[in-house]
Amino acid sequence: MVGASSGIGRECAKQLAAAGVKVAAVARRAERLDQLKGEFPDKIIPFPHDVTNTDEIPDLFMRITQELGGLDLIIYASGVMSDVGRHEFNTAKDLPMIEVNVTGAIAWLNEAAHRFERVGHGSIVCIGSVAGDRGRVGQPVYNASKSFVATYMEALRNRLHRLGVRVTTIKPGPTETEMTSHLHMKKMPVEVAARKTLQLVGRSGEFYLSPMHKIAFFVIRNFPSLLFRRLSV
Amino acid sequence: MSDLLRDRLTSISGFGMSAQEDGYCFRPTHPEQVREIFEIARTTGRKVVLRGAGRSYGDAAILGEALILDISRMNRILSYDPQTGVVQAEAGVTIGDLWRLGIEDGWWPPVVSGTAYPTLGGALGMNIHGKNAYRVGTLGEQVLSFTAITPSGSFLTLTPDNPDFYRIISTAGLLAVIVQVSLQLKKVQTGDLDVLALAPRTWQEQFDMFRRYEPEADYMVSWVDCFGKGSQAGRGVFHAAWYQHGITGAGHTLSLTHQDLPDTLLGFFPKSIVWRFLKPLNNRIGMKVLNRAKDFAASTLGNGKHHPQSLVGFSFLLDYVPNWRNAYLPGGFVQYQSFVPKEYAQAVFARQIDLQQAAKCESFLGVLKRHRPDRFLFSHGIDGYSLALDFKLTSKNRERLFELAHQMNELVLQAGGKFYLAKDSTLRERDFMQSVGTAAIAEYRQAKEHFDPEGLLSSRQAIRLGLSRSSDLGMF
Ligand SMILES: Cc1cc2nc3c(=O)[nH]c(=O)nc-3n(C[C@H](O)[C@H](O)[C@H](O)COP(=O)(O)OP(=O)(O)OC[C@H]3O[C@@H](n4cnc5c(N)ncnc54)[C@H](O)[C@@H]3O)c2cc1C
Ligand SMILES: NC(=O)c1ccc[n+]([C@@H]2O[C@H](COP(=O)([O-])OP(=O)(O)OC[C@H]3O[C@@H](n4cnc5c(N)ncnc54)[C@H](OP(=O)(O)O)[C@@H]3O)[C@@H](O)[C@H]2O)c1
Fold this sequence. Notes:
A: four-stranded parallel β-sheet; 6 strands; B: alpha+beta; eight-stranded antiparallel β-sheet; five-stranded antiparallel β-sheet; 16 helices; 23% strand
């Protein structure tokens, strides 16, 4: 579970551990991971790590699979969303989103894809976002990073599904986590988002977490560009 | 370090396909490389699991995240004397390679399993038996000497006068890697056996037939219909077979073409696809009907008749239908074989089948054999009988099946019986300990400490049975 120290990732890790699954919990904040381990001492093993240190990942991945005694599922939930103003074009704020949401995802999921391709089983889940469905005025780079995730995952799916590997992109809408604590809007409780995510493990495809989002984003995705640019969404 | 292993990852399962794990596969071609693999295990902090042809049904030759030392490419015949029938071979040589080597000179492997694919190393790891077990014992008893490499890297060559000979054979690859074997083949005059088929109707008749033919037949085996109930319980088909002597003009039966199993059934039906037709029948109803039909045919058409059958046809019946095990997909199956002293065998096996019927978990196949005791450390040899069973595993019946197996295990233990690691998926540590006895376990631990003090050799089964400690694995 990459990105296990807060939000959707942490909740997924907890629900998995509660169901008896051994979970390697990866994120930077070690104290948070230790706290998780405190809750599930014989199910969670913490691995403090910053996903932007991509060089570490191949060896760490091997260490984790060794400790777990195998691997059935990887969930990549690490993600950041910088606070970007409507008129801001700020590379320093933008690039970290690429490093975590994109580069980190590639580095971890490539390892998993390589492994699962060889053994012919396994599930890859990446948390994308409804935000990846369109480029919008508020968050150009966050949008693009999530759109990257969807396309990259689609390609993995097309490579691996035939071998028995399941590749799932989850597109949550606003969810109650630290990432969105400053936003005032209707949000899905994180426990619910995690539960729905875990229910989708093993199903290849892209999934929204509520029927409302499915419909709304169907409309948004297909909204003609000429008109979309006139809206301020 | 990850580069050393990354591309060797493979998924392996037991033959029953009910247990599957992923490990890093090494397929050495030379004994020297075996040492290097132990070195890699040390530097990466991993276990090593030995694997031959992977014909053990359960989890004896698998272990997740371990280095899989697959011996099947060390498969050279090192020497062979057509006069004496003594062959020296690397441990990856298979039973099939052996009969092909010797048959034209009238030499046949003295002990064979129901399939020709096992390697010598794997077969000695388990110390396999054949349908002649009551007469010649296990494969280990036919070995003149063998060479093994210990995890620390030393070569040992052992003969039957050395106590370690009886420890390394039979202990499921947990003490050392057998790399070379010297074996005495059995002289045969013709390539055919004289086979007698009889149709016992009850358990009593089954055991009467074994007792009747034990003094004279070279092979005995009986198939039991596990769906037979009440007065029909124990019905089946018994086969006794004899080597043929003093027959002239049978030279052609010693040729490969006479022995080789045909590629088609009835002359035209490609065998490679037969399992697809079996699959829809591979459930309780289908198997009930199929068992009944087989029983009917045998009791009416074949009963009491003698017929010649090639050694290969008689011995490797299960190789007739390639990939038959796929009919058990997706869940796979559990093979269960227990060994019970002759005084109690009839009662225990009858009760095992009653329990299956009560649980609606009947074995689709039952095979009864006669055995004799031997000196090997984890021997399954016993002065009694064994019943081998195949249970289809599904996501729904898993718990029920394991519960049933535990009940059957209890019966075997009460009767002072034994189990066979090659065909085990269900034993718990205490069951195994009780079956082999505390003295054997103590002797094993001492030998383990001596040959493999770092505990490098392991398997999923060994962990399950407390023969290898998972705590050294870095797992929790
Ligand atoms: C269809 C079928 C029919 C069978 N019929 C019979 C039968 O009639 N009688 C019978 O006795 N068995 C029977 N078996 C079981 C089979 O003979 C044994 O499981 C045998 O051990 C398989 O050999 P393998 O080469 O596939 O070894 P594997 O299954 O790969 O390994 C067997 C064990 O030996 C160890 N091992 C592997 N290589 C070495 C080595 N070089 N040195 C030391 N240990 C090693 C492994 O770690 C493992 O514990 C049957 C199996 C099948 C699938
Ligand atoms: N919340 C929403 O409304 C919403 C909606 C749609 C999609 N999403 C997506 O869902 C995913 C999870 O987000 P969340 O809402 O749960 O946010 P969160 O509570 O802020 O959690 C983000 C997780 O990512 C980890 N992370 C961030 N930077 C990292 C780095 N450099 N190295 C390793 N781990 C890092 C964090 O761990 P450390 O900080 O300890 O390293 C934390 O565990 C993200 O991909 C997000 O884009 C969220």
